[in-house]
Amino acid sequence: MPRTVFRKSFRSMRLAMLTATVISVGLAIGAFLLIQLGATSYIKNNYISEENKLKREMEYARELQEYVIENDLSSGDVEMLAKWAQGNRYLYVMIHKDDKLLFETGKFDDEFKKPTDTPDEGNTEQPPEPPVGDENTEGGTENGDTTESDAETGEEDGRGSIGSGITVDMPTREELVKYAIENGAHLITMSDVSVLVSMADFSEYLYYDITNITAILAAVIVLASSVLLYSHGVTRRITKIAGDVAIVVDGNMYHSIRTDGKDELGRLSHDVESMRSTMLENLKKEREAMDANAELVTSMSHDIRTPLTVLLGYLNVMKLHSTDEEMLSYIRASEKTALRLKKLSDDMFNYFLLFGGGASEVDLQDYDAYTLLDQMLSEHVLLLREQGYNVESDVAEISGGKPTVRTDANHLKRIVENVISNVFKYADIEKPVLFSGRVEGESVYVSVTNGVRTDSADAESNGIGIKTCRKLAGEMGARLETEEADGKYTVTLTLPLTATEEKR
């Protein structure tokens, strides 16, 4: 997809996130209202209906009567009555004996009032006397309100309010007293006398609390779930893109990267896919160029070596039929130059095949290090000595313990031939050529050291041979290093060991 087309249909992740947040908040508010309004409606229309409240209060009265009979309570056992009242946290109780208030309790009261028979001097009035009669007979003052002494008593005792719930305000003491008096009194028979009990059930406030807490929790869960759902979708897309990129990084350039989405992530995956396609196209073009160059170099190498071979033949014939020493010197110089050109063309051809045509096939096998190197070097040592070089060799020292190396014999042979060829071309014949070998750690080290000839143009090198040797060594897991110091040139080949029975 062209970049311009993609930008026209671009959608920002910020806007998507804002939209998701607004929707999540809306769903959370909807869940809160649904639970809160539904439960509140049920409580108002069913739980606190007059019929259901009357049933609960009658059940409380029955439980209190059973409690009194079971414990054989008298009107003086106020503490036992208070204990029963404490077990019903959402029930307000007023108990009257004759015309006196025996005690009253509320949800958060820890102490209970037991009026004395003699009224206080500062308060000559008594709480209103509920009418004596049936359990559900309404009582109280004419207007159903509490008396002034009730209010004064509540203020003096610190009972102006029952307290507050978690999310709702509980009814005040005055409201509970008013409701208890208006709701009528229940006759409870004790061991010594009958008393009147006025009750106010406010357990609906507990369910209001539960409703509000449940609605809040549901809203939080809906909000969190909605946000997490959106985040999961974004994370899943990121994971897919990361997985596709990892496959491409591992070398599978033909694996396409999905470009779903029209936001920043979609643009990112689109750009990465475009980069992958571009790299693949470039690699294809590079391969085509390399193939074309290989074909060109192969053709040129043939075209160069053929006339050079003919030229060398002509020069050889001229040497055989020429008797003039001056002419022979020119012929030998021309032959030497032609041979040098032939060697340079061969090096160039080998270098290009190695570096331009990709890695060559490697056949790694296990060999006895001494036997292999002895076969590779012995012939070249003899040739060097025949040419007048002073050759010293201690390669036999690596035979201790019969170390085994894993290498490619053909690659190793090409490396050795190149190194010895450089010795013939660039070494000072007046200085010794040293072949040495040693086992150290997990490797076998083979070195060739020679003096550097500086008085000939032939000593100039383009370095193609050494670069080719390094490449060959790397392909078979070995390492080739060179060092030149104090007029000496050293080439060191490091071959990894595969097994060492014993080392000296």
Question: Nutshell version of this structure?
Answer:
With about 500 residues, the protein is an alpha+beta fold. Helix content is about 55%, strand content about 15%.
Walk me through what this model shows.
- This protein is α+β, with helices and mostly antiparallel strands.
- 55% of the residues lie in helices and 14% in strands.
- It has 12 helices and 11 strands.
- Strands 5, 6, 7, 8, 9, 10 and 11 form a 7-stranded mixed beta sheet that branches. Strands 2-1-4-3 form a 4-stranded antiparallel beta sheet, with helices on both faces.
- Helix 2 runs antiparallel to helix 7 (204-249) and helix 8 (264-321) runs antiparallel to helix 9.
- The radius of gyration is 54 Å and the shape is rod-shaped.
